[in-house]
Design a protein that fits this description.
about 100 residues; mainly alpha; Single alpha-helices involved in coiled-coils or other helix-helix interfaces
Length: about 100
């Protein structure tokens, strides 16, 4: 049995409606993993959510694209007229 003090408090609830087929499939998978439906769904969804977030957070470039990116970073910056105008009109903004 796990230590209740070590388990984070669960105060939020998610509800989802499923078809009979989905319910049977999820219950069978949970049984095969020797876990509860709640634990199975929570573990599965959390794992997938972390993967989606990582995929959208991390930028992966090929070696060629990375080399082009570095070259562009090394080029001198060119002023963007719209930003120059914005900072001139709003001197309280950083850079103005």
């Amino acid at each position: 049995m796990s230590d209740p003090a070590a388990t984070p408090s669960r105060r939020h609830r998610l509800e989802v409606r499923v078809t009979a087929e989905q319910d049977a499939l999820i219950r069978q998978a949970a049984d095969l993993e020797d876990t509860t439906v709640t634990a199975f769904v929570l573990d599965t969804v959390t794992y997938r959510a972390k993967g989606v977030i990582k995929q959208h957070r991390d930028l992966v470039l090929s070696n060629e694209a990375f080399d082009r990116f570095i070259v562009e970073l090394d080029n001198p910056a060119e002023p963007v007229p719209q930003l120059v105008e914005l900072f001139e009109k709003n001197p309280k903004l950083p850079g103005g």
